[in-house]
Amino acid sequence: MSDTQTLDEAAVSAYLRDHLPGFEGPMTVTKFQGGQSNPTFRLDTPGHAYVLRRKPPGVLLKSAHAVDREFRVQRALEGSDVPVSKMHLLCEDDSVIGSMFYIMDHVEGRNFNEPAMPGVSPADRTAIITEMNRVLAALHEVDIDAVGLADYGPEGNYFERQVGRWSKQYRASETDKIPAMDALMEALVAERPADDGQRTLVHGDYRIDNMIFDATGTGCRAVLDWELSTIGHPFADLAAVIMQWQMPAGSEGRGMGGLDRAALGLPTDQEFVATYCARRGLKGIDHFGYYLGFNFFRMAAIIQGVLKRALDGNASNPERAMKVGQYVPVFAQHGLDALKRG
């Protein structure tokens, strides 16, 4: 299949009848419209709701859309303090629907597109962000040897590796010259802090819209979208949260810029970082501006890839892809500003 918007339902149903214990049709398929990378579908049967997540078809950038890695890390985290959906199976046979896919449980609950959580009470906002902090610290305390993930990422300086990787990805999907992006890539190489030896599991895209919370409570039921996960430096994940919060508030920027956080029951950036440090027994974080600048850079590279896929006709949500692609220069400039602030 070459269409990211549809699924060969007959092929999926036949495959699941043969490979997924307990699966019984008929099956109804609904595509999730959120997200830009790996097309994701809800599969409803009379007795169960599943989610299918697949690689997009077509020519892809090397190492991108690694749904097999997503499957592996979530299966490894089952039963840990990091809530994830139950993994059922991974299909590596491209002949079934045209690309690799996996099946997991559909997790019921509520999902927030914006960290400001419009319509939620201040008390619940406080509790939800506190839970977000707890899960992040728990993620970085996972014993990667005990859960079988010690080889999930290479040794060495995480930021050196990531800046190199995403610079190559950016160049491979570059459509226009953006001076701020060129300057940011150079600065991230020149100003990289010395490696402090921390090596943990990292999510790679940790933010509130990648989490499912209790339908009526404030507990986290599942962390989603593990495509960028690896073994790396935990401060990259922490700075990713702060990066999003610094964007403009509202459905477009999806940040907290300009909001009266105290009135809304939301913490300051400094309070969130301090709570995280207390949970992990850290005295504080030096060079936080670098980690923040890195996250703005990586997000710029990601959305440049989204734009390129839209122009090539491969985007999961083409209309939104063209829209977010306009923000590459904005993220690049934010990255430079974060580095200057230190």
Unreliable stretches? none
Beta-strand residue fraction = 5-15%
Report helical residue fraction.
40-55%
SSE topology string: HEEEHEEHHHEEEEHHHHHH
Task: Identify the overall geometry.
Answer: globular
CATH secondary-structure class of the largest domain: Alpha Beta
Strand order of the largest sheet: 1-2-3-5-4
Number of domains: 2
Indicate the structural class: alpha+beta
From the 3D coordinates, which CATH architecture of the largest domain would you assign? Alpha-Beta Complex
How many strand units?
Answer: 9
Alpha carbon gyration radius: 20 Å
CATH fold-level label of the largest domain = Aminoglycoside 3'-phosphotransferase, Chain: A, domain 2
Number of helices: 11
Ends distance: 48 Å
Domain Aminoglycoside phosphotransferase: 28-254
Pfam family, one: APH
Organism: Sulfitobacter albidus
Protein name: Phosphotransferase family protein
How are the secondary structure elements laid out?
Elements: H1 9-19, E1 28-31, E2 40-44, E3 49-54, H2 67-77, E4 87-91, E5 101-105, H3 122-140, H4 158-173, H5 179-190, E6 200-202, E7 211-213, E8 220-223, E9 230-232, H6 234-245, H7 261-264, H8 269-280, H9 288-312, H10 318-324, H11 328-341
Antiparallel strand pairs: 1-2, 2-3, 3-5, 4-5, 6-9, 7-8
Helix pairs in contact: 3-8, 4-9, 5-9, 5-11, 6-9, 9-10, 9-11
Pfam families: APH
Domain Aminoglycoside phosphotransferase: 28-254
InterPro entries: ACAD10-like, ACAD10_11_N, Aminoglycoside_PTrfase, Kinase-like_dom_sf
